[in-house]
Amino acid sequence: MSKRSRAREIVLKCLYAYETLEGNPAQVFEQTCEQSSQDQETLQFVSNLYFAIIDKLKKIDKEIVGHAEHWDIDRFAMVDKNILRIAICELFFFPDIPARVSINEAIELAKKYSTMDSASFVNGILDAIYKENILVLNEGGKL
Asked: pTM for this structure?
């Protein structure tokens, strides 16, 4: 497993803890990363991604809601919602990561931590977001 794949798993755990415990984002990050024995480069990517998601959470969630027909975001499985948040943040705010990599990593996270149905659901939403924003994303655009 690549360093970034491991980092995404840690971010998923951080987001889950943040949402479940409704804690301070920095405390959640510290406590979650304490339990992880990752190198500095991996932890830096975790930090950058996690805090970018927290900072842009409303914009990211608006994007999810806009592509989830007839679904309220509160009805999403928490794991699926957080996987989508990771991928959408990467798509719009990490232009060095190819869109297909972000989408494929999200699908793999869904397969590992959720269900096969969730993997299809995540893929469908991310594919719709990608297709709708392809020109913006290819130019490194942001939400």
From this structure: 0.91
DSSP output for 81-96: HHHHHHHHHHHHH-TT
Contact (Cβ atoms closer than 8 angstroms) between residue 51 and residue 25: yes
Q: What is the pLDDT of residue 21?
A: 82
All domains of the chain in start order, with CATH: 3-138 (1.10.940.10)
78, amino acid identity: M
Q: What is the dihedral of CA 11, 14, 20, 25, to 10 degrees?
A: -120
Our CA dihedral for 17, 20, 22, 26, rounded to 10 degrees, sits at 0
Whether the Cβ atoms of residue 84 and residue 125 lie closer than 8 Å to each other:
yes
Q: Given CA atoms 18, 21, 25, 30 in this order, what sign does their dihedral have?
A: negative
| Per-residue tokens: 119 | 């993997």
Can you tell me whether residue 137 is helix, strand or coil?
Answer: helix
